[in-house]
Design goal:
By secondary structure, this protein is of the alpha/beta class. Helices cover about 55% and strands about 5% of the residues. It is built from 18 helices and seven strands. It binds adenosine-5'-triphosphate and magnesium ion (MG). Adenosine-5'-triphosphate (ATP) binds next to helix 3 and helix 9.
Length: about 400
């Protein structure tokens, strides 16, 4: 959480001029063009669209500043009906007074507007566009929804791209310099990459990580990404545990970037916290053990088509194991001791499987290889790519096994 005493860095370093908006040159050019077109009476409206935190809203404000225009901002709730807009805007839209400043009307985040006739938010907006004397700029995450069809015909569509991570990196660097934050270049770049094109998210992450110490290290960023992964898996657990509808549960793991072994550990750790009735818990464990069984078969025999069953048991199966939902909030926890055991075990197994392959080719025992050969060979994998490639071929090692040797200390 951001502390109240510190103003958000996104506010503090929000671009003041169009030039300070990075990585959106094309969109900004199109926006300037649109304004010219508007002045020539050609295009009434523009829709800026693209992912969150890519600079849409801030582009409108800086552009207005540069053209000495005032921004009149409307939001979705002003569009419940046409009368309401009239009362918000008054006559400002229809007649241009000689003395007042020129305006841009910004309708931010139109995604939420209703397209239904009876509520008519979009109709009201479209009507406003026809009547307005001022340029109307809308922002949207997805303007291609059918409901915007008639509005789109009147508007210039301007795309804001997912920001390239180097553009975000540049913004972060600038902030670090101004805020006297020391950083490891790698750490800051990773932070920029992790934001997935969302500059606002990147700046917020930077603020959270450097709130207490004015320093950013690789370690901090790693912790953050672990935390994010945990958040997505916890969201999935909520879906599985808090619904009895299998069709909702079944999609819950779609965005979770963890393998099924780890997901099972999470479920195992948290199931008893959620399912208080013994019968529910028993049914849930039954599904969990079935999933585990199928998962092992996949590993052993490469029966990949079993994957859908594993997923179904873990999501829909566990969800319908309860007769009814348990009310209230449950604080889900990462799996503790078992996860560590499992990790150690995986490490051990990988080492063993590599050693077995080498032992077979060199006619020695696996334990000999583990003791004498591996410590030496792993250094070759770390230092000499070319030799490493040859050894990989000779011993028939998987890419994963090679990577494991390179990282093994
Ligand atoms: N291209 C950019 N260059 C520099 N800073 C940016 C850029 N894009 C976003 N930012 C930073 O992120 C903040 C949020 O940007 P903005 O509000 O314009 O995003 P948005 O595209 O409107 O997102 P949303 O769709 O969530 O409304 C800005 O205040 C600014 O600090
Ligand atoms: Mg915005």
């Amino acid at each position: 959480m951001l502390q109240e005493s510190n103003p958000p860095l996104t506010k503090k370093y929000q671009p003041k001029t169009v030039k300070e908006i990075l990585g959106q040159e094309k969109a900004l050019r199109e926006l300037q063009l649109y304004l010219k077109d508007f002045q020539k009476g050609r295009r009434k409206a523009a829709i800026l669209y693209g992912p969150p935190g890519s600079g849409k809203t801030i582009a409108v404000y800086t552009l207005a500043q540069e053209h000495n225009l005032e921004v009149l901002e409307l939001n979705a709730s002003d569009f419940r009906n046409a009368d309401q807009i009239e009362s918000v805007l008054g006559s400002a839209v229809k007649q241009r007074s000689l003395f007042s400043k020129g305006k841009i009307i910004l309708v931010d985040e139109i995604d939420g507007l209703s397209g239904k006739q009876d509520r008519g938010g979009i109709q009201a907006l479209t009507k406003l566009v026809s009547e307005s004397r001022f340029p109307i700029i809308c922002t949207a995450n997805n303007p291609f929804d059918q409901k915007f069809a008639s509005l789109r015909k009147k508007a210039a569509l301007i795309e804001f791209q997912h920001l390239h991570y180097l553009a975000i990196y540049q913004v972060l660097q600038h902030i670090c310099k101004k805020e006297h934050i020391q950083y490891e270049e790698d750490a800051l770049k990773t932070l920029a990459r992790m934001a997935g094109g969302d500059c606002r998210a990147a700046i917020n992450d930077l603020q959270i990580l450097t709130e207490r110490k004015k320093k950013l290290e690789k370690r901090d960023v790693e912790l953050l990404s672990q935390r994010e992964q945990q958040e997505t898996i916890i969201q999935a657990l909520v879906k599985i545990f808090k619904t009895t509808d299998p069709s909702i549960a079944i999609a819950s793991l779609n965005n979770v970037d963890e393998d099924y072994d780890r997901i099972m550990l999470w479920l195992d750790e948290n199931m008893p916290k959620e399912y208080k009735k013994t019968e529910d818990l028993a049914r849930a464990y039954d599904y969990l053990s079935k999933a585990d069984m199928f998962n092992r078969r996949i590993r052993r025999w490469q029966h990949w088509r079993f994957l859908v069953y594993v997923n179904a048991f873990l999501t829909a199966g566990i969800a319908v194991s309860k007769k009814e939902k348990y009310p209230g909030f449950t604080g889900y926890q990462p799996p503790g001791r078992i996860l560590k055991l499992w990790q150690a075990n995986m490490k051990y197994q990988k080492r063993k499987s590599i050693a077995e392959k080498i032992a077979a080719k060199t006619h020695t025992s696996t334990s000999r290889v583990i003791q004498d050969t591996l410590p030496y060979i792993k250094e070759i994998f770390k230092k000499d790519k070319e030799q490493g490639r040859k050894l990989q071929e000779e011993f028939d090692l998987e890419q994963e096994e090679v990577e494991w040797m390179q990282e093994w200390r």
